[in-house]
Amino acid sequence: MASYDVIVIGSGPGGYVSAIRCAQLGLKTACVEGRDTLGGTCLNVGCIPSKALLHASHQLHEAQHNFAKMGLIADNPSVDWNKMQGYKSEVIEGNTKGIEFLFKKNKIDWLKGWASIPSVGEILIGDETYTAKHIIIASGSEPSALPGIKIDEKIVVTSTGALALDKIPAKMIVIGAGVIGLELGSVYARLGTEVEVIEFLDEITPGMDAEIQKNFKRILKKQGLKFTMGSAVKSVSVKNKTASVTYVNQKKDTEHQVDADVVLVATGRKPFLDGLGLEALGITLTDGGQIKTDSNYSTNITGVYAIGDAISGPMLAHKAEDEGMAVAEILAGQAGHVNYGVIPGVIYTHPEVASVGLTEEQLKETGNEFKVGKFSFMGNGRAKANFAGEGFVKILADAATDRILGAHIIGPMAGDLVHEICVAMEFGAAAEDLARTCHAHPTYSEAVREAALACGSGAIHS
Ligand code: NAI
User: Fold this and answer.
1) Is the CB of 269 under 6 A from ligand 1?
2) Nearest to 270 by CA among 255, 285, 284, 260
3) Could you tell me where in the chain the CATH 3.50.50.60 domains are found?
4) Cα of 205 to ligand 1 centre, how many Å?
């Protein structure tokens, strides 16, 4: 019976990062993974393959809409869907193999199969039992089902099926205007699919800064996405390879039906805890079905820890990674910790959307006195040269101390730009600190500096 200091269950961004950090800190570590490849949802059927398709479809959009403006001739660019799928698979393979390499390098054993925890300190995989002083559950999440909807991953799909459709559909209905719906919806819209998004609420991307929501929707509409807001999908039926979606308009209380070749159900995810034996072990869950943990990521059972999508908080790969590192450090006797006030959120559409910290609405609710510094990418020379002038940077700072409280960006490379604001927030910086930092010209990041300037004496280029 093999024995370890730590066994991590799950090799997604939370699990594999945690395993690597445990090994680096001198703990004998194994990681259990039941898929054929390492990397979990994110690398196999989530973040990474979707980014490959977002990139490819954006290139097509550029060729169709902007090449001619720059004097580049690429007549009638078209899509070889099989080849695009092949490119996506290569990207996945490169990434999952990379983790296999890192496991070998760090002497982490990959225990292949699906694990359960029959008792404290024990892991069972098939007939094989392993022991560990510490067990970290990093089992991730799965799409949450909608009552009345049967997923077949061909016509009625989750994000997993949407990444591997047989062909580009003529019409797609996306249920849910959250991150998954909008990222994948915009991929297919760019590939020529007629995309209609049906959303329960009156605004897209719930929880985002309202000004961003409004502008984001306007931009996506301009790109051809159709939005049916304030409408609850009740059921989906499939007949002769066509799906019929029935939804109710909340305000008018009227029922409607719309047909499509493919329906993407993107109405949220829930922790994936099947088969772990948590109930028998006596692990406490939250009302939302997540594993309940304390500030050290310990469950109510000594020696069993949990991180990532399996516990509370935003379901984001990078949040899971940070928790994975923190719990490893805690197990090694160090002071691991995650600053939940500075976790960026990014939507990888074109333009990208990124945010960190508090929204204007949250600040108004708390009664905090704050100032808003805004700068449009129309005033940024680099963005103008790259046909990327749409969007803005908005920085929210405390009215009295000038400390940065939040930032919201819609525009080119927003997902990268947001990080200088994250670093500033980690250091407790004032908007003036950013404003006084020299930014290279011409870069998109000058828009961040201009927004910081706008919190004080004023932006230069607006
Ligand atoms: P989500 O929670 O972001 O959005 C779901 C949307 O579906 C909500 O707007 C909700 O109001 C709507 N909805 C729910 N039931 C409905 C119904 N019956 N009819 C119409 N609309 C309905 O969930 P999503 O997009 O599935 O993403 C799941 C998780 O994965 C999220 O936590 C997200 O943050 C994460 N994720 C993050 C990514 C990123 O960081 N770029 C990429 C993909 C996923």
Assistant:
1) yes
2) 285
3) 3-143+270-338, 156-267
4) 8
In which residue ranges of the chain is CATH 3.30.390.30 found? 342-454
Q: How far apart are CA 224 and CA 112, in angstroms?
A: 44
Q: Candidates 3.30.1490.190, 3.30.390.30, 3.40.50.720, 2.30.110.10; correct CATH number of 342-454?
A: 3.30.390.30
CA 331 / ligand 1 centre spacing (Å): 33
Q: Whose CA is nearest to atom 28 of ligand 1?
A: 268
Closest residue CA from atom 44 of ligand 1: 180
Q: Say yes or no: CB of residue 114 within 6 Å of ligand 1.
A: no
Helices in 26-170 by DSSP H: which ranges?
A: 40-45, 47-65, 81-105, 159-162
Whether 117 and 8 have beta carbons less than 8 Å apart is answered as no
Q: What is the mean pLDDT of residues 290-315?
A: 98
CA 455 to chain CA centroid, nearest Å: 29
227 lines ligand 1 (CB under 6 A): no
User: For residue 238, how far is its CA from the centre of ligand 1 (angstroms)?
Assistant: 23
Q: Give residue 353's pLDDT band: very low, low, confident or very high (50, 70, 90).
A: very high
Fold assignment, 156-267:
FAD/NAD(P)-binding domain (3.50.50)
pTM over 0.85: yes
* CATH number of the domain located at residue range(s) 3-143+270-338 in this protein: 3.50.50.60
